[in-house]
Write a structure and sequence with these properties.
This protein is mainly alpha-helical. The chain has two domains: 77 residues; 66 residues. The chain contains four helices and two strands, in the order ββαααα. The chain has a two-stranded antiparallel ribbon with strand order 1-2. Helix 2 runs parallel beside helix 4. The radius of gyration is 43 Å and the shape is rod-shaped.
Length: 160
């Protein structure tokens, strides 16, 4: 009797047909598994290359993030001062205080106000005041105006 399996034509006795078919099926299954196992190193190699690429991209991203954080820190250091608009508002408020106190016995002058402001904020110039203290600067100048116009004598701080 002649039978055909997937791979070959076989001449076998009829009583051995079932046995032969069983073995051919298992042989086919084993060949498929062997092919799968043989492809594992290639798959692992491909996976290894992809992992190396992913790690390289992650390292690049980490480096860029670090560089960006350093750059932002430098920008923050430069921009922590009052903005031009804030500086102008402070100047206008100082001008207003000077204008509204010039008729008093002891008027507040630009030199006096800017000197007190620099002393209070511990800066060399009022423009060096950190922008986070902007509201404090406005409150301080408003309080100076209120005290001067209400008749309270401003406190004289230590000159040394």
């Amino acid at each position: 009797m002649v039978i055909s399996c997937r791979h070959e034509r076989h001449v076998v006795a009829s009583r051995h047909v079932w046995c032969h078919t069983f073995y051919c099926r298992h042989l086919t299954l084993l060949r498929e598994h062997l092919a799968g196992l043989l492809s594992v190193p290639r798959q692992l190699s491909t996976l290894s290359v992809q992992m190396e690429q992913a790690l390289a991209l992650l390292e690049q991203t980490t480096h860029r993030q670090s560089a960006t954080e350093q750059q932002v820190a430098r920008i923050d250091a430069r921009t922590q001062r009052l903005s031009p608009a804030q500086t102008r508002t402070v100047q206008e408020l100082v001008d207003r205080v000077v204008r509204e106190t010039r008729h008093l016995v002891v008027p507040l002058t630009h030199i006096v106000l800017y000197g007190r402001l620099k002393q209070r904020c511990r800066v060399g110039s009022f423009k060096e005041v950190p922008d986070a203290r902007y509201e404090e600067v406005l409150a301080f100048l408003s309080e100076e105006l209120r005290r001067a116009t209400s008749g309270q004598v401003p406190e004289q701080g230590s000159l040394f």
